[in-house]
Description:
Helix content is about 30%, strand content about 10%.
Amino acid sequence: MAPSGASSAALTGNCANGWFSCAASVGGGCCPSGYGCGTSCTAMASGQSNVGKGAPNGAANARAYGWALLSLALLSGAGMILL
């Protein structure tokens, strides 16, 4: 999972392997092991850079569900027009 920018809404869902969930009080999302949760993922060891939070799998699933629902609505509408 590639890190992405932090969101103002708390992100929930499962994190990728090697990442962990951040608390809702810091905006949710996922950070890689060895980093601390905050506005972004904060490096815990010297020499590491801070990274952006990753979106949990639940966010990607919601997007896919939305596209599937839109497709179903369009197909239903086309079917009604043809009948």
